Amino acid sequence: MRTQKYSSITSCGISGINGVLVEVEVTVLPGLPSFEITGLGDSAVREARNRVRAAIVNSGYRFPEGRVIASYAPAWIQKSGTGFDLALALAILEASGQIVRPRGEEPLLIIGELGLNGEVLGIPGVLNRILTIYKQKKLFYVLGPLDNLLEAELVSKIKYFGVEDLKSAVAIYSGVKMTQKRPAAAHEETSQQSPRLDNFFGQEMAKRALTISAAGFHTLLMLGSPGCGKTSLASCLPGLLPDLSEEESLAVTMIQSAMSKGSIIDSLVRSRPFLAPHHSITGAALIGGGSPLRPGICTAAHLGVLFLDELTEFSSSVLDLLREPLESGQIKMARAKEFAVWPARFLLVGAANPCRCGYSLEANDRCSCTPNQIKKHLHRISGPLWDRLDLCVKMQSLSGDELLNSLTARVGTEHETTASRIKVCHDIQKRRSRELGLSFHYNSNLPVDDYCRDMKIEKQTIRLLSDFAEKKAISARSYHNLLRCSRTLADLEQSLSVKTEHMAEIMQYRLDLNTLL
Amino acid sequence: MILRLATAELLVLSAIEYRLSHKIRCKLLKYAGSMTRLWDLLHQRNRSDEPAEFDLLRLCLRKNGSDNLLSQANIWFNQGINVVSVADPNFPRRFADRKVQISLLFYRGANISLLYKKCVAIVGSRSLNSYGREVTAEITRQLCSKGYCIVSGAAEGADSIAHVEAIKTGGKTIAVLGCGVDRVYPISNKNLLANIAHSGLIISEYRPGTAPMAKNFPARNRIIAALAEAVIVTTAKTKSGSLITAKLANNMKVPVYAIPGSIFTNEQKGCHSLIKQGCAKIITDLKMPELNTLTIGERATNNDANEAKSFQGARINQRALVDPGQIRLPVASNQTEGKIFEFLTLGPGTMEQIADYIGLSLANTAQILTGLELAGCLTNRRGHYELNRFS
Ligand SMILES: [Zn+2]
Asked: How large is the ipTM?
């Protein structure tokens, strides 16, 4: 009677940002020596053959003779990455009778990449896998790379054993109890200190606009000549936004883990992401895509800031893609074989020169652009995006005196004061969402049936707005944006209702092409 | 052949214009005496006394294909395009008087007689502040009410305002283009050009279809200067195209006037330098009594009686005009607003500067500015607030 040359081990892959359970099956059949992997894998999966063979041999085991067939099930899911190596190696060893999992042991889930020398290497997306199995409540014991131990331990409910090499993985698999090694001391927290608002002299209008924008997640367009400080001011934003809550933090860490390129995650991400892609970015890189589907910059900026410098230089077909995440806070991707939904609720901040030469907002006569030229320049920002830019600030370069003033070091509490006001404003919005029976929404995306009732807008404010709308012939979208932005301003001032003064101030920050010509 | 004479002329001219220099064109036209005659002569061979240039012309015709030219000419004709040449007894004398080399003028529009009327050219910047807009519009209204025909270049900014106001006031206007008369440039002036074609005149020395090229525009300016009894520069920055028109007018001994503005802004710097250099006379009264001493249009036409009538029609409109003697500031309803007006009379300012001056927070300043903007006292332009006059 011949022994059964078959083994099946559970592993977990990544699809977008979520984990997918995958069954790695191996069988050894008689025949000429060969090694095949079946089941929709990318090149990294197919190359596993060489890595796994080398790792097995170099760890002192025997690679079975005969036809080795490995299958990843379910076969219809696109599988990618190197995370199945360890599971495949153990399955081969079991199928060839070199190791055996004793009966009665807990079900085990195995992830990790193998080096040629049998080392178990860290992989991206461990947190995502662990969270997935936690949510599915299926397996409770995970064997994975030692490098990912700290990341895995962020979810305390799941037992995780980190191993360094194939040999210790075999030992754990065979039921040997070992003490958990700890990885080398976690490297120092090198969170870059984002610049402080106090460091910037002047530009009071821009700071005000930035505060309103951060408080209600209203999209902002900064216009000004080159070097007037658009980029530096925008980079204050992550520091101004309140730290992520527990739940938000887990979501952001998961995204960063899935998208990390080799960097090790050892704690939850607390600070807001700040993404500033170059204007040559492609649509797939911005909102995600490719095959297999991978999330893009928009998802990486989830709950943080997406800063688009030189907004007029982006291709308008790329900018058009931002419409969906700006509307719904998520990105849906559908392909023939795959379907994905990724979160993408970010604060969009754009910066651009106000005209081709860049100096039209300056008081000097350096700019000789005509209204038509300026129109042409600004029309390069795609129409759908232009309509969705809630606030606009026009910045001038600092004068000589102001520049001189800005050289002296400034110590102030402006940064902290602003940050705490924004925090309070976020809390108010949280409360408002709760009162309306909704999950947390910002004023910019709160679903509203009746503005006057849900956002407590005074009758007189509406009258002022109607007057304004009539005189300036504004669109319906612009009308609603003004209501939402003024609600945020009232929240910042901790006013229960939206008064005319809030609306009147917000009107000065409205994006209006006519004022730019 | 069902060609009308005008079409034949167009055809010949386009061929001439295409290849030959101004000198040769004039010589041919002078010899023939008129366009029609030139066309006829072209088809009569072996005249012993004909100038050698005739062969050149025949060569041009052959090279471009007679039939092609004919069909092209027919299309132009159907678009309402016509032409007048230097050989034509009706060709405006002022070009020759002012030594402007021009042998052909393509035109589109009903009113060719405008070419002989007394005209005033209004030129200015393409980007205007509210002062520039108001002053250009106002001076146009005043001139129209005096019966002047307004000549300008149909560019964006001051030119467009001059044309629009002239049409609105019921006055006459000529647009001189730097491209073919069938082209629309800038594209934003599509409706305006249609209106001018309807009630005024569009002219150009370039063949229909010619694209607007930068080099054409200074040449276009010399036609504007040559047509006018006076050139008025309403706004000009230091490097403005209007200054070229002023220079050309100076050389032709056409009087040039310039409108002064605040010395705190850059918008009128070009005007100021014209005045300072003695190239232009300063305008201090928008009614322009100076113009009463100007010479009247060049020839007595039998249209004069009709025109006199239309002047009266224009005069009735005058009552609607604002008396330019009073340049009013908006009425300040409180001290703060008064201070804002006081600050902005010196020139436009940013919100931060205004807040600084009136000593209020940025938030309060923004609220007040919105109020003033809604009341029509202020305009926000390129990040700066400026006062609206005549509001
Ligand atoms: Zn410019």
From this structure: 0.83
> Residue A229 C-alpha to ligand 1 middle, in angstroms?
18
In a domain, A507, yes or no: no
Tell which residue, A21, A44, A48, has the closest CA to residue A131.
A21
A371·B370 Cβ contact <8 A: no
What residues pack around ion ligand 1 (CB closer than 5 A)? A 355, 357, 360, 367, 369
Same domain, A315 and A357: yes
Task: For chain A, say whether B149 makes contact (Cβ under 8 Å).
Answer: no
Q: Is B107 helix (H, G, I), strand (E, B) or coil?
A: strand
Q: Could you tell me whether strands A141-145 and A67-73 are parallel, antiparallel, or unpaired per DSSP bridges?
A: unpaired
What is the separation of C-alpha B238 from the centre of its chain, rounded to a whole number of angstroms? Answer: 20
Would you place residue A185 in the very low, low, confident or very high pLDDT band (cuts 50, 70, 90)? low
The DSSP H or E segment spanning B25 is helix B22-32
Locus of tokens 């030219």 = B69
Mean of pLDDT over chain A: 87
Last residue within a domain, chosen from A409, A438, A467:
A438
Say yes or no: A309 and A218 in one domain: yes
Give bridge partners of residue B262 from the DSSP assignment: none
Cis peptide before B348 (omega within 30 of 0): no
Beta-strand runs (E) in B320-388: 378-381, 384-387
We report the CATH number of the domain holding residue A261 as 3.40.50.300
Mean pLDDT computed over B323-349: 71
Strands B384-387 and B378-381: antiparallel
Phi and psi at residue A148, in whole multiples of 5°?
A: -95, 10
- What percent of chain A stands above pLDDT 90? 49
